[in-house]
Amino acid sequence: MLRNTFCHIPGIGARYERRLWEAGILTWDDFLANATEESIPRLPARAGTLENVKALVAESVKRLEANNPIYFSALLPAREQWRIFSEFRGKVAYLDIETNGYMGPRGYITAISLYAGTTVHNYVKDRNLDSFRYDIQKYRLLVTYNGKCFDLPFIENQFGMRLNRAHLDLRYILADLGFKGGLKGCEKLIGIDRGELSGVDGYFAVLLWRDFKRNRNPKALETLLAYNAQDVINLEPLMVTSYNMKLEKTPFTASHLLKAGKAPSSSFRPDMETIDRIRTSIAAANP
User: Fold this and answer.
1) Does the pLDDT value for residue 284 go beyond 90?
2) What DSSP assignment string belongs to the chain?
3) d(CA 173, CA 170)
4) Is the pLDDT of residue 287 over 80?
5) Distance of alpha carbon 18 from alpha carbon 258, whole angstroms
6) Stretch 190-211: mean pLDDT, rounded?
7) Closest CA to 108 of 63, 158, 55, 51
8) pLDDT tens figures, 153-174
């Protein structure tokens, strides 16, 4: 879809882009080869001359060939950021963190899961968490749910680093499509069943970490990592579903639809005894 996109060109909006498509200018190549003053609708004054727009389209071709998604994310309107996904799918990392439940100086990351389409990589405090800062450099595009407000700022603060990557936050993409109810609610709407982890949420993850640290319960950590891994694995079908639904508003639905990859099986298994015990403690604290 990115190669069909013109609304990242300064001065060109969604309405004019659609007029280009209707005139038969469907791709960047079409524009560079066939766009003339006579063959396309009159350019908006703020877009400048035809030569100027052609130069920017040619620059887009170069940036895509250089695998530079951040160039496009910086130029695309917020509602059109999803268009980056298909071209950079091979460079994407689905990302989610868990924390100890605090913000500010008392807050810290307990676990990170990173899914790159084949394998889930897990990072745990006091074990291998610092390896994340090096491994994340391999990926050019990040996909999260609410990562703009939570995961990415938390990571940058804890690691003292800048995640200068293109970023698609599914919270906003899904909301624009009418999906509500948080990550778990959106999963249910597209038919994702968490099985044994149904009902486990971010607060529950905090309690799992506390159980692991205070009671030295390895099954609590195993359950936490199973939950964290499920979060990132489920981001891919959500992203693909969102992308395909967005496509329905363009002329490219038939040719550009994506299929979700086969979800990997997690190497971690939730422990139902631990889950039931923590559920009982939550119920007792909130009669």
Assistant:
1) no
2) -GGG--TTSTT--HHHHHHHHHTT--SHHHHHHH--TTTSPPPPGGG--HHHHHHHHHHHHHHHHTT-HHHHHHHS-GGGGGGGTGGGGGGEEEEEEEE-S--GGG--EEEEEEE-SS-EEEEETTTTGGGHHHHGGG-SEEEESSIIIIIHHHHHHHHT----SEEEEHHHHHHHTT--SHHHHHHHHTT---GGGTT--HHHHHHHHHHHHHH--HHHHHHHHHHHHHHHHHHHHHHHHHHHHHHTTSTTHHHH---PPPPPPPS----HHHHHHHHHHHHHH--
3) 5
4) no
5) 22
6) 94
7) 158
8) 999 999 999 999 999 999 999 9
Whether this model's pTM surpasses 0.90: yes
Residue 169 sits at φ, ψ, to 5 deg, of -100, 110
Pairing status of strand 109-115 against strand 166-169: unpaired
Instruction: State the average pLDDT for the chain.
Output: 95
Q: What are phi and psi of 110, to 5 degrees?
A: -95, -35
Tens-digit pLDDT profile for residues 174-197? 999 999 889 999 999 999 999 999
Mean per-residue pLDDT, 107-119:
94
**271, two tokens:** 């422990």
* CA-based torsion, 236, 238, 243, 248: positive or negative: positive
Average pLDDT over residues 5-25: 97
Q: Residue 89 has what pLDDT?
A: 94
Q: Of the candidates 106, 171, 181, 119, which has an alpha carbon nearest to the alpha carbon of residue 145?
A: 171
Q: In what order do the strands lie in the sheet with 141-144?
A: 120-124, 109-115, 92-99, 141-144, 166-169
